[in-house]
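Researcher: Last one for today. Full complex below.
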Amino acid sequence: DAGVIQSPRHEVTEMGQEVTLRCKPISGHDYLFWYRQTMMRGLELLIYFNNNVPIDDSGMPEDRFSAKMPNASFSTLKIQPSEPRDSAVYFCASSLDGGLSYEQYFGPGTRLTVT
Amino acid sequence: AQTVTQSQPEMSVQEAETVTLSCTYDTSENNYYLFWYKQPPSRQMILVIRQEAYKQQNATENRFSVNFQKAAKSFSLKISDSQLGDTAMYFCAFMRITTSGTYKYIFGTGTRLKVLA
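Model: Here's the assembly. Have a good evening.
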């Protein structure tokens, strides 16, 4: 398996623009997580899905952030409008329920810079 | 609310030596899981080791082992025979399953470890 795939790897955009980050989880995994990593706040869980259904979005910072999972193999995190303080590395991770490990498999991340 | 604290922002160790990274957490739960994740400069986060709270025996994975002190809510990571490839940011993480079946993951702020040649 190719692992969790994220695109783009780097994104530079101007304040006010819409940004869409994409994630393809590992095939067969039924949990998908979105994280944001910054120097100031560390790694924060934004939202996670189980079987394509959002379960906990309490970490989503504002209404400018939205996430969708239209099917088991694809998820998006959208920021509209983007602001400079949204600059961070955004990680997607997937996990397989039913096992005993609860291990999360992370993607390589998307580095977002909002100018 | 649960919290995870890593009090050592940065550490360094000589190659082949042993180093211990500390992690403490706060919870009122009895059943939970603890993890150490490694994030090398490439940014890819990978699991190093995990511990189930109901297990008294400390987990080990080759050169990596933990010292799990449940009463003290401490979960330190020991890296033996440090290698240059161990240079990375290490995150301690806590996970519990709520009564409604949702997962709660909390990560610490990380410890940046540098292995010196």
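Chain A has no helices and eleven strands. The mean pLDDT of chain A is 92.
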